[in-house]
Amino acid sequence: MASKTALVTGASRGIGRGIAIELARAGCRVAINYAGNAQAAGEALALVKAAGGDGFTVQGDVASAEDRARVIAEVVEKFGRLDLLVNNAGVAPNVRADLLEAGEESFDRLYAINLKGPYFLTQLAAKQMLQQEPDAEGFRGRIVNITSISVYTASINRGDYCMVKAGLAMMTKLFAERLANDGINVYELRPGVIATDMTGGVKEKYDKLILHDERGITPIRRWGKPEDVGRAVRAIAEDRFPFSTGAVFDIDGGFHLQRL
Ligand SMILES: NC(=O)c1ccc[n+]([C@@H]2O[C@H](COP(=O)([O-])OP(=O)(O)OC[C@H]3O[C@@H](n4cnc5c(N)ncnc54)[C@H](OP(=O)(O)O)[C@@H]3O)[C@@H](O)[C@H]2O)c1
């Protein structure tokens, strides 16, 4: 595969790092975006290089319009072209609060980082992709949104998170429809419970639910790994789904199955 270029938001740690490494295994050049943890971003870059890829780290808060514009400009300056945008950066509520008590501050934070940020970053990335010549596969670009099983699972102690992830699922459909005839496919990846810093604080709870309860919440009885999501993004980067857009991939150990 010719060296494709990718921007992965929130790639310093967790799922984003796993995605960056898998893209590197496919020989991609990866822009590793992060919010504040420069050390983790540096480690991710070293892993990308060790995996056979290349790239650079780029600080930027996806919730900031100024930062979004700067990040896209830097990617275009360094790579000359953006083949793949992965909207991965996201945060959970700082406090899991009951639906009747949850505050506006948490709602506004999650809305800004998990939904508004990706929406306007995608707008910028799509405009860049539209200016690019189609590549050998006929694509001007590809866009991947990392949502969650929270798109359809009601968790009443983090309603804000569920609502913005549901919005991100609709965002996938909107951009897929808008860009379908322009050589840009858009995909939603819907991870289940993945072992990262985000789920570190609830490890015991999910150990019980996944591993120790009689039946387990996931038919495949293990935690997900960042690599599980990374491998799916890699398949998209390698154009394994050229006739699919707006498609949803459940990367959740079968969590979404309704069982009796
Ligand atoms: N873990 C799960 O079980 C799970 C399940 C379903 C979906 N997801 C989704 O997967 C994505 C990644 O989750 P994760 O578990 O890998 O989280 P994580 O381990 O907490 O890592 C979060 C990443 O996002 C970056 N980030 C946070 N706020 C940002 C901002 N405002 N601008 C730019 N980057 C920002 C962080 O950068 P710094 O290192 O600089 O802080 C870090 O790289 C999120 O969208 C999450 O909702 C996670």
UniProtKB/TrEMBL annotation:
Coiled coil: none annotated. SUPFAM superfamilies: NAD(P)-binding Rossmann-fold domains (SSF51735). InterPro entries: NAD(P)-bd_dom_sf, SDR_fam. The keyword Ligase does not apply. Keywords: Oxidoreductase. Pfam families: adh_short_C2. The keyword Ribonucleoprotein does not apply. GO terms for molecular function: oxidoreductase activity, acting on the CH-OH group of donors, NAD or NADP as acceptor; quinone binding. GO terms for biological process: fatty acid biosynthetic process. Belongs to the short-chain dehydrogenases/reductases (SDR) family. This is 3-ketoacyl-ACP reductase. It comes from Horticoccus luteus.
